[in-house]
Specification:
CATH architecture of the domain at 479-635: Orthogonal Bundle
Oligomer: single chain
Radius of gyration: 31 Å
């Protein structure tokens, strides 16, 4: 080949990736613009973008978005044809569901039943199920309908309006007997749904209405309503109300409940399981709140009142009290499966060490230290041993990676991620990965990491059993940002990585049921309050979806918690998860407590796990970033007593 031709070919080969990337970037921009118009129902404004989008994997999603915006105005045949042609698009899921609702609103019951039977009959979706009941009524297909509709009607909570036609039919068929009304009323009372219970009681007469009112008063004020046993009759319905009331009282005033319950327990003909329910509740609330007498209440529970929670909380209270004899006795009562968990193996060794049996403790610590995790690192620290990182890189298979990168389903997932529709992308990614062979699933984690999709790299690696590939499972995204904001806030970037991974798995769009948003999962109120210190402008929900702003706010708030709790990283981590006021309440009353004992006696299971996960992850990230081991116990200073307690008052 002539030299000039060779050079030209070489230049073209070098230019092609950049040209392709530029084309892809322009298509992504065109898709974003087209999507906004499609969702607004303006296909005329989408059309100018179509030429640039030929061959783009997400082109069908624009039509799905448009059809969804125009349901009831576009021909149902077009919607049906689109869904048949594109059954697994993430956008198709939403379109199909909204189309089903549209068909029901318009009374197109034949089409509705066709969609329902194919896609929703086993989904346990109350509204769609009730629309199906109505469809069967309208079409005269009532065989077996009464049984199915009654199963929905016998719910302790109000059902959606879609269920009204079926429930009215049940009433017309005289299926809603007084016995069934009372049954549902009782279910509603037991979960505190008093409005529904009162509505159900009215046809049953004044006595039923009075019973609901009595339950409502007990719910609102169990302290004054649960007086002496003489005020009550020993009937099944009275006993049911007493059980409900004492569980309410145990939550509101556990010490008062502990004083009053024994007289009721001895007077009324409760079943053993009913007595055990209240016994456990009173004892456990005492334990969760670290109240005086909690250990005695747990110790004196009848044998048939114990369960895994009561047995483990007996040990946690003994750990908090540093009562090693009680720790040993409590550990001996755990079943074999529970005792084999890392937490109880660690405390077995701590108990042996604290009672002068260090030689017996060492092999227990040593066995734990062969693993990786919070208790393994703590055990290694007790032995002054190296951490066993167990890191094992997954070798990339470039041919397989290239093939995976060309798979249409994975390419679609990647593009959804890149255009900002990450939730849709995650759905399609999971569907695609489920279709892969095991070796391909392992490589999918590498592919996701190369794409910068770190949450999918983590989940793919974990799902493929690559638990020791720390490069995939503990990636370092946004490193310049996180290091810069950590330095500005004066906190460890490895700690910030541990918090961020635990909070969101590095998903910028993550949101929680409590309303926390973004990489570091901040509540909007916290973001607004922290913005001035972080030097950022807070403009509501959308602000927290921006990684740079979220990390600036999150590191500022984390530093604030660290300062509030005297540079105690364990307390600050717990406060980031559960709130500083709760952490204040959980501090010891009288004297400092070893940090490991404090962590394992926190009332919230979620916060215990969170603190342990963050501290273990911090150690992994520190090792990943620097190659050095920073021992987890460096953060484990003794936990000081609550300010204002005898031991917590400054001299």
């Amino acid at each position: 080949m002539p030299l000039i031709a060779l050079c030209t070919a070489l230049l073209l080969s070098l230019a092609t990736p950049a040209t392709a990337a530029a084309t892809l970037d322009s298509q992504r921009d065109a898709f974003r613009a087209g999507l906004a118009h499609a969702e607004a129902g303006r296909w005329d404004r989408v059309e100018p973008e179509l030429a640039a989008l030929q061959g783009y994997p997400l082109l069908p999603d624009l039509r799905a978005a448009f059809l969804r915006s125009r349901l009831g105005r576009v021909d149902d045949a077009e919607v049906r044809a689109f869904l048949a042609a594109h059954p697994e698009l993430g956008f198709s899921d939403g379109l199909r569901r909204q189309w089903a609702h549209s068909l029901a609103r318009r009374g197109a019951w034949g089409d509705y039943l066709e969609v329902y039977e194919q896609h929703y009959a086993t989904r346990n979706d109350t509204t769609l199920d009730c629309h199906a009941f109505t469809a069967r009524l309208r079409r005269g297909a009532t065989a077996g309908l009464a049984e199915a509709a009654l199963a929905r009607w016998l719910s302790p909570v109000s059902q959606p309006e879609a269920c009204d036609p079926a429930f009215e039919w049940l009433a017309a068929q005289r299926e809603l007997t007084d016995e069934r009304r009372r049954q549902r009323m009782t279910l509603a009372l037991e979960v505190g749904e008093f409005r529904l219970a009162r509505w159900l009681a009215r046809p049953l007469g004044d006595a039923a209405v009075a019973e609901v009112d009595r339950w409502s008063r007990i719910h609102a004020d169990p302290v004054t309503r649960l007086g002496a046993p003489d005020d009550w009759r020993d009937t099944p319905r009275e006993r049911a109300l007493l059980l409900y009331g004492f569980q309410r009282l145990a939550s509101a005033e556990p010490e008062l409940a502990a004083r009053r319950w024994p007289a009721f327990r001895a007077t009324f003909a409760f079943e053993d399981a009913e007595r055990a329910l209240v016994d456990r509740r009173i004892a456990l609330v005492h334990a969760w709140r670290h109240l005086p007498g909690a250990a005695d209440l747990l110790a004196t529970l009848p044998a048939d009142s114990h369960d895994a929670d009561t047995r483990t909380w007996a040990v946690r209270l003994a750990i908090r009290a540093q009562d090693w004899q009680a720790v040993e006795a409590g550990l001996a009562r755990l079943d074999a499966g529970t005792a084999a968990e890392p937490v109880w193996r660690y405390w077995q060794a701590r108990m042996l060490e604290a009672t002068g049996r260090a030689p017996a403790a060492r092999p227990v610590y040593a066995a734990l230290a062969t693993e990786r995790g919070y208790y393994s690192f703590m055990a290694a620290d007790r032995l002054d041993a190296d951490y066993n990182w167990q890191h094992a890189d997954t070798a990339p298979d470039e041919a397989m990676l290239a093939a995976l990168a060309r798979r249409p389903d994975l390419v679609r997932a990647r593009e959804l991620f890149h255009v900002g529709l990450e939730n849709h992308g995650r759905i399609e990614w999971q569907r695609a990965v489920a279709r892969l062979a095991p070796p391909e699933r392992a490589q999918a984690g590498i592919l996701a990491k190369r794409w910068g999709w770190y949450s999918r790299a983590i989940t793919a690696a974990t799902g493929a059993g690559l638990v020791n590939d720390l490069d995939l499972r503990f990636p370092l995204p946004w490193r310049p940002l996180i290091e810069a904001q950590s330095a500005r806030a004066g906190i460890s970037s490895a700690w910030v990585y541990g918090v961020t991974r635990s909070e969101s798995l590095f998903m910028p769009d993550a949101s929680s049921g409590a309303g926390a948003i973004g990489l570091m999962q901040l509540l909007p109120a916290t973001g607004r309050q922290t913005a001035p210190q972080a030097g950022v402008s807070f403009r509501g929900y959308q602000t927290l979806l921006d990684p740079e702003t979220n990390v600036a706010l999150g590191t500022t708030y984390l530093a604030e918690m660290l300062a509030r709790f005297g540079n105690h990283r364990v307390l600050a981590t717990a406060a980031y998860n559960a709130g500083p006021n709760r952490v204040d309440r959980w501090l010891p009353d009288d004297a400092s407590l070893p940090a490991d004992a404090w962590v394992d006696s926190m009332p919230y299971r979620e916060t215990r796990g969170y603190v342990q996960r963050v501290l273990a992850s911090e150690a992994v990230f520190q090792w990943r970033m620097s190659g050095q081991t920073v021992r987890i116990t460096e953060a484990m200073q003794p936990v000081p007593p609550r300010a204002g307690s005898a031991a917590g008052v400054a001299p």
